[in-house]
Design brief:
By secondary structure, this protein is an all-alpha fold. It contains 15 helices and no strands. The protein folds into 2 domains: 192 residues, Up-down Bundle (Growth Hormone, Chain: A), CATH 1.20.1250.20; 214 residues, MFS general substrate transporter like domains (Growth Hormone, Chain: A, Up-down Bundle), CATH 1.20.1250.20.
Length: 414
């Protein structure tokens, strides 16, 4: 049991850890499965599209639904949907009928379930713990998720020695089922008491519009979206070239321990950054933290642009992901402190769609173009400029006022 956070949070935290470990396995297994079936790099790349498109298409829908109906119910149904979609891959493999189309469609449906879960998930933690415990709770949840994503690729490499990729997918089916059971064990709906229990599907566009109007009307929240979008674009550009930069730019072999260390440094920095957020209580001074860490992140990018030793690059990557993740988590906690529960899913989902869709995907696409035209140092420098832009946005007086408001509200409730 986690002291001070309660039994319900324990079940929720366990569900996120189990689910993310399964998803980390599938993240490697599904593209490999498509490549084994087709032998086509182009078709394999469609797996990335199948993974990212649902969040862009349905992220705001998930946020609206998460504010309209009991979040626990939505999360359980989303887990079951994802489990059934992935089980279709396992079943078709058993029957000898597996095809690329089955894998792509199943992956798309599974990620659609994840998008709906994600919308409800934004309001879960504030409903389960006291506001003064949000830093610690978010650090535990996101740190555990990052740890599972760190362990997953290594574990799937060992599983593939004795299993086929379709058999590995079965582990994710089990993880989604286990997550559904754990979420169902939570004794609260994780929703605001004023949430509509008679909401209808036709109301969803209206509720999305209401959420966007609330986001625009609150001074500082739109600037937070700008901070997140610039930072996510930088991370997208960096991650998009990570493998070819390591192999071609740093002369790291495409297999073996050196390559593993380079890839692990990315997840390690994110894991440490997430766990450290709770220790630093970064959500109480999110803008202060953002201004410092985005600036340090930009310096890391500029340093990576001139580094030629792979082990130095790996160490800088750990520091870079630490800065980005700790800053990202502090902003999430700030939003959870100041946004009413009835708007929490919509506001966070809208922010994620913009940063994840426009930011990460756009940054990755532009980074790939810059790499092909000007080389990897140009991409790394571009990421540094994006983080500097994020830092400049964070100096908006509206964000300073937003942080003071959050601190005042927090003090009044203690």
């Amino acid at each position: 049991m986690i002291r001070g956070l309660g039994r319900n949070f324990y079940f929720y935290w366990a569900s996120r850890g189990v689910s993310k470990l399964g998803s980390a396995l599938t993240m490697v297994a599904l593209p490999l499965l498509v490549f084994n079936l087709s032998g086509s790099p182009a078709l394999t790349s469609l797996m990335v599209v199948a993974d990212t498109t649902p969040m862009i298409l349905f992220g705001m829908v998930g946020g609206a639904v998460g504010d309209m109906w009991p979040r626990r119910t939505i999360m359980v149904l989303a887990d079951i949907c994802s489990a059934l979609a992935l089980f279709s891959i396992v079943a078709c493999s058993w029957l000898g009928e597996l095809s690329v189309a089955v894998v792509l469609v199943a992956g798309f449906i599974s990620q659609t379930g994840e998008a709906m879960y994600d919308g409800a998930n934004w309001g879960a933690t504030p409903a389960l713990v006291k506001r003064d415990s949000l830093d610690r709770a978010n650090g535990l949840v996101w740190g555990t998720q990052s740890l599972m994503e760190f362990a997953g690729p290594g574990l799937v490499g060992m599983l593939l020695v004795v299993m086929s990729p379709s058999q590995v997918v079965l582990f994710d089916v089990i993880s989604f089922a286990a997550s559904a059971v754990l979420v169902r064990a939570v004794s609260t709906t994780m929703s605001d008491e004023t949430s509509s229990q008679t909401a209808r599907i036709r109301n969803i566009p209206h509720e999305i519009a209401n959420g966007l109007r609330y986001l625009r009307s609150q001074a500082g929240l739109t600037q937070l979206v700008g901070v997140g979008t610039a930072g996510s674009a930088a991370v997208g550009a960096m991650f998009g070239i990570l493998v070819p930069w390591a192999v071609e730019g740093l002369d790291v072999p495409s297999s073996g321990w050196m390559f593993s260390v380079m890839m692990a440094s990315w997840s390690l920095g994110a894991t440490v950054g997430a766990f450290a957020t709770g220790r630093m209580r970064a959500g109480e001074r999110a803008i202060f933290v953002t201004r410092r860490l985005t600036f340090v992140a930009s310096l890391c990018c500029f340093a990576l642009a001139v580094v030629t030793a792979w082990w130095i690059a790996a160490a800088i990557l750990v520091a870079y992901l630490f800065c980005h993740t700790a800053q990202y988590m502090s902003v999430i906690t700030l939003r959870q402190r100041i946004v009413p529960s009835s708007y929490l899913s919509r506001v966070n989902a809208a922010s994620r769609v913009v940063s994840y869709g426009v930011g990460t995907v756009g940054g990755a696409a532009l980074g790939g173009y810059l790499a092909s035209r000007f080389g990897y140092p140009a991409v790394l420098s571009f990421a540094g400029v994006l983080h500097l832009s994020s830092c400049l946005i964070s100096w908006s007086p509206k964000l300073s006022a937003l942080e003071r408001k959050a601190q005042a509200e927090f003090t009044s409730t203690v």
